[in-house]
Amino acid sequence: MANTENPAVPLTGVAGELAAKIRNRTARAGVVGLGYVGLPLAVELGHVGFPVTGIDVSQEKVDEINRGSSYIQDVPTEALAPLVQSGKLKATTDFSAVAGLDTINICVPTPLRKTKDPDMSFIVSACEGIAKHLKPGTLVILESTTYPGTTDELVRPLLERPGLRVGHELFLCFSPERVDPGNPKFQTKNIPKVVGGTTPACSQLAVDLYSQALDHVVPVTSTQVAEMVKLLENTFRMINIGLVNELAMMCGRMGIDVWEVIDAAATKPFGFMPFYPGPGLGGHCIPIDPFYLSWKSKQAGIEARFIELAGYVNGQMPHYVVDKTAAALNEHAKPLKGSKVHILGVAYKRDIDDMRESPAIDVAHLLMKAGAVVSYSDPWVPVFRVDSVELRHVDPLEAAAGADAIVVITDHKGVPYREILDKAKLVLDTRNAFKGIQSSKLFRL
Ligand code: SAJ
User: Fold this and answer.
1) Residue 370 maps to a domain
2) Residue 352 to residues 147, 180, 342: CA-CA distances in angstroms?
3) Who has the most CB within 10 Å: 180, 215, 315, 362?
4) Residues 204 and 147 in one domain
5) In sequence order, what are the residues at sequence separation of 6 or more whose Cβ sits closer than 8 angstroms to the Cβ of residue 63?
């Protein structure tokens, strides 16, 4: 049971009836979007007894869930299967299921367009599907990361109509998803859940719902605050990564070991949080979320200069890595053109299989454009497509001896780095995977 900070708001009428169903866990819960956010949430709600209906546009995902099989790394099939077999959790592509739901969590993607503008098409499509079948007495919570104002300015008009007034017959909230794929310590159940409602009754109902399934619920006073919380969290990371990437370039010019600098700074027991340079910014959150904020702040007449600058610096890192590779090969009198360059690790971060926005894609593209012959090893990623070329994972020890240069892009655990260095001609380490190891063959960011 969660500890909630705010005293309960007295709920009567439609809200009171819904609150009762939530508190006795007979409320029929719906989750729209069954990805790395939606499926774990659906399982947590099912685990505490709610009948759950997952809705997704992918028939393949729906079929796999209804077979009791999980396609999400953080949701073991052993956790999903019993819920499906008992009938507690089912999935469908049919939005008419909304008519039988009391609560609906919207967990659909919010990518960026090529123009770095928010792509709201998934939210709009989900809301249009929901609106067709929405009944009075339903709680709708948007979880997709988005700009402040989305819930009240975009979602509310799509769902609200006479007899479905927000705060009366319809209850609308925003709650940022904070899922960190692959995190062994923090998963959906034990990550504090921020939630803000359009009205106090909306907020209270969402607090009641999350409190049944999650360990800690953090109510805030509006949907805009809740939307902004998530953007601050991830913009904070993106800008600080940009700072250390710029510091790495400075240290490179000054012959200072940036990794040693950061490790020593991290001994400060207060007022400092270490971030580490790398080959660029990958993933589905950090490179994207801040641009939702800069887009909205531009409309408010404020230039988000930190975000734009950090975006530029982080975007330069793949080029910086390729320049460092060329410089290292130059030490061996080898041009980049025609050299065999083997990449270690292509997923966007350590110990996961996710390739979204991975800097490895940019680095490999730039290396190929410069005429290098690129190969890679990544135990998590069997196939790596770069431009029109399909590369396949090869054993790093087999590749090490034949490569003119090895470039560490993602430092997965369990890779024989020491043995690779012994066999390699030269190694450029962009992740400090060879921490504490000195070798004339070893180059660092
Ligand atoms: N990165 C660096 N240097 C760093 C940290 C990260 O270059 O010091 C790179 C990573 O290699 C990766 C990218 O930035 O390419 C993003 O890394 P991330 O550690 O931020 O991982 P994500 O993208 O999975 O971010 C998620 C976020 N979770 C949510 O949005 C719910 C983020 O808020 C979390 O803080 C982060 O996981 C986490 O802490 O693992």
Assistant:
1) yes
2) 27, 11, 20
3) 362
4) yes
5) none
Q: What is the pTM of this model?
A: 0.92
Write the CATH number for 439.
Answer: 3.40.50.720
Token output for 342:
């083997």
Confidence band for 2, pLDDT divided at 50, 70 and 90: low
123 and 85 in one domain? Answer: yes
Strands of 193-197's sheet in order across: 3-4, 216-220, 193-197, 170-174, 138-142, 103-106, 29-32, 52-55, 89-92
Compute the distance between CA of residue 357 and CA of residue 287 in angstroms, rounded to an integer: 8
pLDDT over 70 (residue 1): no
Decide whether any atom of ligand 1 lies within 6 Å of the 351 Cβ: no
Q: Are residues 188 and 282 in the same domain?
A: no
Whether residue 144 has pLDDT greater than 70: yes
Residues 216 and 243 both lie in one domain? no
347 and 425 in a single domain? The answer is: yes
Which 8-state DSSP code applies to residue 395?
A: -
- Most informative mutation of 229, 285, 293 for ligand 1 (most atoms within 8 A of CB): 285
233 lines ligand 1 (CB under 6 A): yes
* CA gap 207, 217 in Å, rounded: 6
Could you tell me the pLDDT band of residue 358, with boundaries at 50, 70 and 90? very high
- Alpha carbon distance 361, 346 (integer Å): 8
C-alpha–C-alpha distance, residues 95 and 333, integer Å: 63
Give, using CA atoms, the residue closest to atom 32 of ligand 1: 234
- The question of whether 173 is a catalytic residue gets the answer no
Q: Contact at 8 Å (CB) between 52 and 30? A: yes
CB 348 less than 6 A from any atom of ligand 1: yes
Residue 188 domain boundaries? 13-221
Q: For ligand 1, is residue 37 a contact (CB within 6 Å)?
A: no
Which value, in Å, is the radius of gyration of the alpha carbons in the chain?
24
Query: Is residue 323 classed as helix, strand or coil in its secondary structure?
Result: helix
**Nearest residue (CA) to ligand 1, atom 18:** 286
Which residue is closest in CA terms to ligand 1's atom 9?
281
DSSP sequence for 232-294: HHHHHHHHHHHHHHHHHHHHHHHT--HHHHHHHHTT-SSS-------S---SSSTTTHHHHHH
Spatial distance between the Cα atoms of 262 and 241, rounded to a whole number of angstroms? 12
Average pLDDT of the chain?
96
CA of 337 to the centre of ligand 1 (A): 33
